[in-house]
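Example with several molecule types.
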Amino acid sequence: MLKFVLALCLSLASCFVQCKEISIKVVTQLNKAIPNFVVALIPKTTSPTSQSDNVVIMDQIDTQFSPHILVIQKNSKVLFPNSDSIKHHVYSFSSAKTFELQLYKELKTQPLLFSESGVVELGCNVHDWMLGYVYVVETPFFAKTNIEGNVVIDVPDGEYQLTVWHPRIQDELSALTRDLSIPIQSAITVRLQKPLLVDLNQYEQESGEFSDY
Amino acid sequence: MNKSQESFLIIKKLWQRKASLQTRMALFFLMLLTLIVMVTLFIVERTTFNHSTQQLNAHLYTSARVVADKINNRAIMLHAGLTTLAKDFSVKQLISSANEDQKSLYSAMENYQIARLDADIFWVLDGDNKVLVSSAQAGDINVKFASILSRQQIHWYQQNNIFYLMQAVPVRFVESSARINAWVVMGIKADRLFNNELVKLTDMHISLYHDDSKTLISSTFSPHTKSLLAATPIMIVPDMLKLNLDNESYIYATFILGDWLNIPVYTVLTANENKEYLSTQILIEQLVKVLILAAMLALIAAMLVSKSITKPLKELILAAKNISYGKYVESFPSSNTTELETLSSAISDMQLGIVEREKEINYLAFFDELTGLPNRVGFSQYIETSIVQNPHKKLFVLTLDVDRFKEINDTVSHEVGDRILILIAKRLRAYTHSQPFFARMGGDEFGMAVAESDGQDAGSIASSIVELFEQPFSINDLILDIDCSIGIGVFPDNADTYQGLLQCADIAMYSCKEQHYHYAIFEPKLNKYSVMRLDLMSQLKGALLDGQLKLYYQPKLSIQQNSISTVECLIRWIHPVHGFIAPDEFIPLAEQTGAIRHVTHWALDVACQQLQKWQSECFTFGVAVNISAIDLVDMKLPVFIAERLQNYQLQANKLTIEITESAVMTDPENALKALNTLREMGVILSIDDFGTGYSSMAKLKKMPVNELKIDKAFVLDLASNKEDQIMVKTLVSLAQNLSLETVAEGVEDKATLDFLAEIGCTKAQGFYLSKALPATEFDLWYKKFNKKAE
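Resulting structure tokens for the full complex:
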């Protein structure tokens, strides 16, 4: 995942010379930092380039989806490998992408194309505790907050719409969406108005997404 | 006045009435048993009631818990079923595609509702409050309500007046998701839950109410009862309450069982009161039965007790009645009861006492205590009985009087007198010829009745009785010669009644006493005489006033001087009808009636008057007047004599007072006083009939007398009888030794007078000189005597 982000950053840096770092912090109404919060900057002027060949992986390790939240640009393909020695039955009834991968092992499936933006909730029919999300955005500029709730994104100058998302968010997403101009604004704090839903299974902690740092 | 008071009064009246012991016992037993039964029943009733109440309370609570548990279990089952349903992948698929394919979801839900969960109604809601599918009759519900229903509690829901037990479960397409994608909701009709199974399980009827008992949701009662119940207000209180439905009495209690839209729903558990409590009516019926039984038992008990108590009591009562009628009871009932036994023996003892006392009374009534002979009453009974039994047989009735018994009594002592009577009785008893009947009539008088046998006549019987007295009686070394006078009355010759016979015998007896015979048989002429005698006494006082009484005068000759020294004044009663009445006849009677005092006073007065007259004629002799014992103790006599002497201007030594020996002995103390007084006055005192009494020489010595008169009994035969001569000689010498003069009475011939002169007797008196003469005749005799003497 980290490799992927770095790679993405490098590729973006190579494309746009006039890139600017923007720092975004997401906190609760009580100013508590929220990690693993998805932040995306959707350009208003230029439509983002399609990346149809791009394949990202949503793995299944120890009967958990890994990562817990996968953010992808629209029209990306996601491969669902099975790293466990047991069969899984991955499915989604979400309108952004409804699918079902009947009981399988290892890499027997083909990557699936996510052509619509939105939240795709993933489950496994044989393991009720398994829960994963694929968040599809129409921009290449997105990231998830670190443990301090911060995220830094390099974006070229221009007008953007800032959108945020989290599986347990209760706020209306539109209320948190805002417009911003780069480079005028370089640091933004997003404060939620409602508390998050309770993390019943502590997916974020167990995912080990930041363990590499 | 109320009923209980009335019945109390009736019982009180019954109790106070003089009821038999048996009735009273039965009543007592009955009352006691009634009391015990009532108290027992009261306690049992109370205890049972309390126990039943506790039981019922526990039963109600247990049943309520059973019902709640049953319903809760059903809800849990439904919830579990719904949870399974919600997790079903196919169902999730069908829900997710419901917008495109509603029918498939409906069909699947119907399958679950009917086949798998046995529910009656269902809904599927999506996360946006939209009903995806629902059973035909279902109304609208929302997510909020569904989320309430998803709590594991008992929830109710009303739709078209039908109540349902509701459960809801959220559907998450991905199970671990925080977001709910849909709701499945199902309900079971309440009526199906409150069924007979619950009734069997709890033995109660269960009803379901909503909205503070205003709405009856469901009930296990029959539709009819249910409709009645719906019209009956039910109180939601923690206590048990009563309820009447369809003529049945119920006890009910209310418990919360879930809610509908947060308003509690109540179960009302209804128990049949009669089942739970012993009915009062049944208790009273049992009470009556027990009381009837008790009454019978009391009656039997009373009868049994009466056998052992009242039966002997009744027998005792009969015995006591018999005793009171004078019948004697031979056996008294015995009883094993101590008190009755004691009472029985007490009555027995009482009878014995009565018998003994009766005998005693009888003895006292019919027998004489002193002699042991029958008394006057016994005598009369015997004679009356004999007369009745043998009316044709002669019966001799004898009365026997001891001569001079009074003198014996006075002279010796009453004890000796009594001893004599006892000895006489003993001698009489010894006479057994022809079965005589002896009795003591009182005093010194005995009675004898003997039937004629062997041609015995009254005289021979009397003679044989007289013979019994020939032997002297010996008492305490004292030898007494006792004579008796016997009068005889004969049945049926003289009289035919006891009274008549006794009167005849008495008359005969008195007549023989007067005539100094040993016995006399009744003759009618004696009767007449006797009646006259009794009549005399009433006439005596009048006779004194009428001058029927006269003094006759008999001279006493001074032997040595051959002159008349004293004249004895003798009272003669010349009765206008009966003629001459001897003093022996009326003086004793006058002594008995007390009239003697008048006679004595009269005699003294007349004697003194006569003496004055004689003195005026130059006669030198004095007068002698007899006075009785009664006069002697009359202390007025000396005064009266003094008055007379003074009145007629007489010297005291011209008056001689003659008293009998026995008169002095009657009351020696007072007699001595009187004699001393008279002696001091100078009156000459003379002891009359000396020798016939029992006066001792010691007593004679003390007496202030001047002369002794020797009784004519010693003098009449003096000329021929040697013993009399010795006796008189002794008496005379005794008198001489005591310086007393002696007067011999009954001198009838010259020889006697000569003998008297020879032995030194002072005076002589008798027919040889003169009999007692009236004053005028005496004057003539005296003049003649004086001439002769000269």
